[in-house]
Write a structure and sequence with these properties.
With about 160 residues, the chain is α/β, with parallel strands linked by helices. It has helices spanning about 15-20, 35-50, 65-75, 95-110, 120-125, 150-155; strands spanning about 1-5, 80-85, 110-115, 130-135, 135-145.
């Protein structure tokens, strides 16, 4: 599971590639070939369609690039659930659209996305199922594929 929110989960002062590979669980190398990990990052980001200048340091990333790096880091570590918390609060309209397109793409690869938002118009653009919560209770549930969705029909 990974969380993408307004607060960055990347280490400031380090490069994007260092955040992706070196600062992850299971990394046990004493000598790091930066060319090798950089080329692996370039290949991975190109395969996934994540548009980020990998030579940047974390503190110089735009909000969209930061979200893409955090998403890439989650995918590299094998996460199957990405939680996205109110991206409209920190992304511009264009950035939000780009980020939502990327989330749709990774959903097709079998990655689940829990998208938390404040505006129903934003949620309907990305979600297959939407629930309205208040005080810990679901008050309204909407599924775009209701006829084909056994989970929604059963309760």
């Amino acid at each position: 599971m990974a969380l993408i929110e307004q607060k960055s989960h990347l280490v400031q002062g380090l490069s994007v590639v260092d955040n992706l590979f070196i600062l992850r669980e299971g990394f046990r190398k004493y000598f790091i070939n930066e060319q090798v990990i950089f080329s692996q990052a370039v290949r991975f980001f190109e395969e996934k369609g994540l548009k980020v200048d990998l030579e940047k340091r974390v503190e110089n990333l735009t909000e969209l690039e930061r979200c893409f790096v955090e998403l890439g880091k989650a995918l590299l570590s094998g996460c199957h659930l990405i939680i996205v918390d109110n991206p409209a609060n920190y992304l511009s309209q264009y950035e939000l659209f780009e980020f939502q397109q990327m989330l749709k793409k990774i959903r097709k690869e079998g990655i689940s996305v829990l998208y938390v938002g404040n505006h129903h118009q934003e949620l309907f653009k990305i979600a297959d199922r939407t629930a309205l919560f208040s005080d810990g209770h679901i008050y309204y549930f909407l599924c775009r594929k209701y006829e084909q969705c056994n989970q929604c029909r059963s309760g």
